[in-house]
Structures are given as C-alpha cells and as structure tokens.
C-alpha cells in the first residue's frame, strides 16, 4: 500500500491555513468596495433642490444664494492662492479652481454628483502641488480654500443623502488623506487630518438637522392624518347615533300602523270583508317591514341597550321636553333663559328630534367649556310658517374659570351639522365679539300627517 502525506492544512484537528484567511479578507474587502461604490454612485432624489418642499419662497431660494456666494468668493480666491502662494501655472490654476468651486452651484440639486467633480479636482490639485516649489511650508494636500469649499459641499451633501452615503464619502476622504502620506512633499504642513475631522463634524451636524426635520415633518403628517381620522370617526359615530334615533322614531310609527290595522275591524263596525282583508294585509306588511328594519338596524344599538331590553320603541324627545332640559342645565350652574313659540308648533319627528338634540348639544358645550355663562335659548317660527329657527347664544363666563373639558371629540358641532343636513336645514355657528358663542339652526316646518291617530308608547310596545 502506498500512503499519502497530508499537508498541515489537511491534517485532522488543525485550523485553516493562511491561504483561506487571506481569501476571506480579500473577499470582505471586495464586498466593502462594492458597497462603497454603490453608495457613492446612487444619489438620493437627484434634481430636487434643497428646501424645495418649503412653502416660504425665500427659504427655497436660500440654497441657491449660499451656493452662488461660495462659488463667486472662492473662485478668485482659489486662483490667487494657487498662483501667487503656491506658484502653480496660470492655466492649470484656472482650470483646477473652476473645477473646485463652480460645481458648488450643482450641489443645490445634485450634491453627490458635485462631490465627485470637486473631490476629483481636489485630488488632482494635490498631485499637481507636489511638483511646485511653493508647497514648502504651506498646507498640503488640501489648501485652505479647498477646505472651505469642501466643508460647504459636505453641508449640502448631508442635507440630502442618506447616512450610509455620508459615511462612504467621509471614509473616502480619509482614505485619500492617508494615501497622501506616501507622497507628502518635504516641508509641507499636512492638512488631511484637519479636513477629515471637520468634514465628519459637518456631515454629522447636517445629518442631524435633516433627520430632525424629517422626524418633525412625519410627526406633522401623522398628526394631520390622525386629526382627519378623528374627524371621520366622529362623523361616523354621530351618523350612527342619528340612525339609531331615527330607527326608534320609525319603529314607533310602524308599530302604530300595525296596531291600527290590526284593531280596525274591532274598532269600526260594518267593515266589508274585503276591507278587513286589506287591513290584515297592511298589518302583515307593516309587521314584516318592522322586523326587517330591526334586523338591519339593530346592530347600530349599543351592547348595553341590547342587554337591557333590546331596541326602544318609545318616541325620542322633542321640543316639548326643552323646559325639563333647561331646568337640569340650570341646576348644573348655568343660567339659561328659554323662549318657546307662543302657538304650538307641529313638527315632523325628525325635525322635532333634531331641534331638541341641537339645544341639548349646545347647552352641554356651555356647561363643559363656559361654565356659569348666561345663555339664551330661543325657538322662533318664520312669518310664513315654513321655518323654525333654533338660536342658542351664551355670553362670556362672569369670571375667568377653568373649563370642565379642555379637549373634546367635537361631537357637538359635528352632530348639529349632520342633523340639520338630515332635515334639509342650515346651521350657523361662531364666536361673538364679547367672548360668547352663537349657534343658529334653521329647520323646515312641516306638520306630520294627520291621518294616523296618536297611540301611547305603551300600546306600541305591545307589538
């Protein structure tokens, strides 16, 4: 048998040799360079100017003004420094100074592309300065004008690009400075560490400001969305409440129809057989409609109402119950004056309920937000007898007081608007010059049908 000798890397119990480790390091380095190239080559929102979303016109122009000021001031200064202080050739000086300063105007809309141009021009300038005699005793590889322009570019870059891109730019700046140590001219003053530190500080400050602005903008957007959702939810809740109340009103009248149709043959003598059958059909149809309505609209009622007896069939309150409502408000500490029409007013159930609820909501708002304020409630009929005006006016509180509720859901005004819209009315609300508040609702006056004789709620509950 012939044996095969194992290399140290293949012997059992031995770790990997130096070759696999070197490969892993090279692979990690290539991966890092690939990520660096992707970050440096992928700008964020190219073409969008800095502060472009700001509403103030002067703030939108501010980046252009700042970039123009830096470009105009640094261009002649850079030419003078490179030509007179460092002794660089005039033609090369003009080309490099232009490449180092003019792209600052591009930084307003495309800061990452401007960085590529300016950084390349700075590196070429540093290489060109190694061949001139004026570099001895002066800043290298980055002259003072280069540092100023580069820091201005870092500010524009940090206000636009994401954090990984900023880190890539900063590391590239540091690597260029480290590599420059190998060709540093004798007698020059190294400035790469200074630029590396200052650029990092500028990038961090700009990124912090940008992220703070983004966070505030998102917070405002969320507050706007939350406010819209809150208003929508309030509106839906108020519509549900109105639907429940209308369900009670309709259920009451359907119960009245059923009772009248069922009892007509017993209350009226001499009715033909065909009429009895017609009354029976009316009663059956009304009873079926009532059951169907209860099935469809019963879900709008709260669990507590369902638990304690199911849907109510008694009529909802109307303007006849306003004196009792005002009496309770007076006991709560709010002086209220009530004025009702001299002659009885015949209202449809929906209008009657809407008038009562509008007064109820208005008085509740007075109790919550202006406790102790004198309030006047007036119900006025129009001369032509077609409109009813519900007017609630309260003055300012007699003494400064803390409202019982500083924040609310806004159900009061929302509910009033929905109710007047339901009955084809109009609503006018607003503050008064003396510090009070006014609510004026204009509701249509239309008497209910007179064909149905009134029945008590007790009778209707028997259905």
TrEMBL record:
Signal peptide: none
Entry EC number(s): 2.7.13.3
InterPro entries, A to Z: HATPase_C_sf (IPR036890), HATPase_dom (IPR003594), Sensor_HK_TwoCompSys (IPR050482), Sig_transdc_His_kin_sub3_dim/P (IPR011712)
Record GO cellular component, one term: membrane
Segments of this protein annotated with the region Disordered: 1-22
Enzymatic reactions: ATP + protein L-histidine = ADP + protein N-phospho-L-histidine
UniProt keyword list: ATP-binding, Kinase, Membrane, Nucleotide-binding, Phosphoprotein, Transferase, Transmembrane, Transmembrane helix, Two-component regulatory system
Protein name per UniProt: histidine kinase
């Amino acid at each position: 048998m012939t044996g095969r000798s194992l290399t140290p890397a293949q012997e059992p119990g031995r770790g990997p040799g130096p070759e696999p480790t070197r490969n892993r390091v090279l692979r990690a380095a290539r991966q890092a360079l690939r990520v660096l190239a992707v970050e440096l080559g992928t700008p964020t929102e190219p073409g969008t100017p800095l502060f472009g979303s700001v509403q103030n016109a002067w703030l939108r122009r501010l980046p252009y003004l700042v970039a123009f000021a830096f470009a105009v001031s640094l261009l002649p200064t850079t030419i003078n420094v490179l030509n007179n202080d460092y002794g660089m050739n005039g033609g090369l000086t003009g080309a490099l100074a232009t490449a180092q300063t003019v792209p600052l105007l591009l930084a307003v809309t495309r800061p990452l592309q401007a960085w590529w141009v300016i950084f390349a021009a700075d590196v070429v300038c540093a290489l060109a300065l190694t061949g001139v005699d004026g570099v001895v005793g002066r800043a290298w590889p980055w002259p003072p004008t280069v540092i100023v322009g580069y820091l201005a570019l870092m500010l524009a870059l940090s206000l636009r690009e994401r954090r990984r891109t900023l880190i890539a730019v900063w590391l590239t700046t540091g690597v260029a400075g480290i590599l420059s140590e190998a060709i540093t001219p004798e007698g020059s003053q190294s400035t790469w560490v200074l630029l590396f530190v200052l650029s990092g500080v500028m990038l961090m400050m700009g990124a912090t400001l940008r992220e703070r602005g983004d966070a505030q903008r998102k917070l405002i957007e969320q507050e706007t969305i939350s406010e819209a959702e809150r208003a929508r939810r309030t509106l839906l809740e108020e519509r549900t409440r109105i639907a429940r109340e209308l369900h009670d009103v309709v259920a009451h009248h359907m119960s009245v129809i059923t009772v009248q149709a069922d009892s007509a043959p017993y209350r009226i003598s001499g009715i033909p057989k065909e009429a009895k059958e017609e009354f029976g059909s009316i009663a059956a149809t009304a009873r079926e409609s009532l059951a169907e309505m209860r099935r469809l609209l019963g879900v709008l009622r709260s669990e507590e109402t369902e638990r304690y007896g199911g849907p109510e069939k008694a009529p909802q309150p109307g303007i006849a119950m306003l004196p009792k409502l005002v009496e309770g408000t007076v006991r709560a500490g709010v002086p209220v004056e009530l004025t009702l029409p001299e002659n009885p007013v015949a209202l449809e159930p929906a209008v009657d309920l809407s008038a009562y609820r509008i007064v109820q909501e208005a008085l509740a708002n007075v109790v919550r937000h202006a406790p102790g304020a004198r309030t006047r409630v007036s119900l006025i009929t129009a001369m032509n007898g077609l409109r009813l005006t519900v007017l609630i006016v309260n003055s300012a509180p007699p003494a400064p007081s803390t409202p019982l509720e500083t924040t609310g859901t806004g159900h009061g005004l929302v509910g009033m608007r929905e109710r007047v819209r339901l009955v084809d009315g109009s609503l006018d609300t607003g503050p008064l010059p003396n510090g009070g508040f006014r609510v004026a609702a204009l509701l249509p006056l239309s008497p209910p049908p007179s064909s149905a004789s009134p029945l008590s709620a007790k009778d209707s509950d028997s259905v």
